[in-house]
Hints:
The structure holds two protein chains of two kinds. Chain A has a single domain, classed as Sufe protein. Chain: A. In chain A, 40% of the residues lie in helices and 20% in strands. Chain A contains five helices and four strands; from the N terminus they run H-H-E-E-E-H-H-H-E. Chain A has helices spanning 2-7, 10-17, 65-78, 83-97, 124-139; strands at residues 30-36, 41-50, 53-62, 143-145. In chain A, helix 2 (10-17) packs across helix 3 and helix 3 (65-78) crosses helix 5 (124-139). By secondary structure, chain B is α/β, with parallel strands linked by helices. Helix content of chain B is 38%, strand content 16%. Chain B contains 14 helices and 17 strands. Chain B has helices at residues 19-24, 51-64, 74-94, 107-122, 141-150, 167-173, 196-205, 225-228, 253-258, 293-307, 311-330, 357-365, 379-384, 401-417; strands at 32-33, 36-37, 39-40, 101-104, 128-132, 153-157, 178-184, 210-213, 232-236, 247-251, 269-272, 277-279, 335-337, 347-352, 369-370, 372-374, 390-394. In chain B, 50% of the residues are buried. Chain A binds chain B through residues 1, 3-4, 7-8, 13, 17, 38-42, 62-66, 120, 122-123, 126, and chain B through 354-359, 362-363, 366, 373-375, 379, 382, 388-389, 417-418.
Amino acid sequence: xxxxxxxxxxxxxxxxxxxxxxxxxxxxxxxxxxxxxxxxxxxxxxxxxxxxxxxxxxxxxxxxxxxxxxxxxxxxxxxxxxxxxxxxxxxxxxxxxxxxxxxxxxxxxxxxxxxxxxxxxxxxxxxxxxxxxxxxxxxxxxxxxxx
Amino acid sequence: xxxxxxxxxxxxxxxxxxxxxxxxxxxxxxxxxxxxxxxxxxxxxxxxxxxxxxxxxxxxxxxxxxxxxxxxxxxxxxxxxxxxxxxxxxxxxxxxxxxxxxxxxxxxxxxxxxxxxxxxxxxxxxxxxxxxxxxxxxxxxxxxxxxxxxxxxxxxxxxxxxxxxxxxxxxxxxxxxxxxxxxxxxxxxxxxxxxxxxxxxxxxxxxxxxxxxxxxxxxxxxxxxxxxxxxxxxxxxxxxxxxxxxxxxxxxxxxxxxxxxxxxxxxxxxxxxxxxxxxxxxxxxxxxxxxxxxxxxxxxxxxxxxxxxxxxxxxxxxxxxxxxxxxxxxxxxxxxxxxxxxxxxxxxxxxxxxxxxxxxxxxxxxxxxxxxxxxxxxxxxxxxxxxxxxxxxxxxxxxxxxxxxxxxxxxxxxxxxxx
Lengths: 147, 419
């Protein structure tokens, strides 16, 4: 059962239950909707930029504990970062969660708690949905799906 | 919460089903998953296969494989006889004639076939197709595509709070522009059994044909299409313990005769020139190209296997599981059953307070329990009950009370983790 506890760590359960930055941003610089048609997870990501810096980032929507915690941790981690830093964080996160490169966890701060997800292939999309949604927002695409 | 159906307990006591012996026929069921015995509770998605079916498919490939309706050599004769024989078995099984049994990939393809042939020939601007709120996407989207092309409309019959069809609304909504009623026999997300015979009577009284989605009914009920009286009945091999990739569209001969063919190709023709083609007779008119021969032979073996079962005992066993499961699940604090219609078959759909179904599914998986978590390709039903998704434990004749106990124990574990 250790891998299950690795997946559902206290921090994840906490962020899933009490997500941070769970609100909409009025007049955002960019926004996008993310859908996982497989399970019905549905999120909206809002972004306010100050030049190259992320002044504010938030989300709304419904999904499982993993997807909500991932969104909560992502928004907490990216606020104040430059776009280049955000891109680098996404690349590291992707390597950790999708490719199973646990070494990346060391430089990812709180996001490291999501490293257990890579042992659950059916749940990887849950963790990565909001990140892809954020990317869509930055690219000016309004809709993204995990398919 | 509503009490489970009690209609069946009043039925005369059937000899008990020997479930242990039945389970021994399914090789896949004896395995261990994450160190726990597999409890397969996702038969509404796809059922497992008995040895007899697996062997029939293997035997076909090892001994009899040749293209059907073409060769003059012995293998081709054997293959053709097996293929035609399978169709005849299926026809007998559902009370139809062989020429009324069109072999397709599955329920979805059967419905699309009707939409693209009967539908395109008979539905025009401002016409209506009547559906219910509990339809699977495969009995919504083909009609939506047709309606979009023809400028027709979908009219939807609502369900009540328990998930039973509002028959009064159905009667009210069939109008002069209704060209077809398309209704599921059993709901995949709620388990509701619809009164198909009554629906057919109401529709036929107004001259409207009826298509029935039988994907979820055929694993649980013996279906006689003549008795139901419907014009079309579609179902899938893989949900009735048969192979994937093969299914059946039953159509009344008179309807099928009038319909244009669907896909063009070999086997569906009598003669072809560049000027014109003469189409083959029923059912070949609707079966272009080399069919899924091994699948059909496997389906024939499935029907043989199903006919050997004591269906009164199967029904009593399944209703017992449903009642037992309903009772046990209702003991869990914060659990809400979605779909508690008086007539149900095979499905326990529920939500657990504060835990998303996907998380429930992952935790149950580590206990060896396979359930479906999601919208079950029935998003309008989810919307009706105000949930984005549910956990669905679906039952088949090989499930046991012990597996329900495992499910309940697993759900208690979920609650501990998310407390």
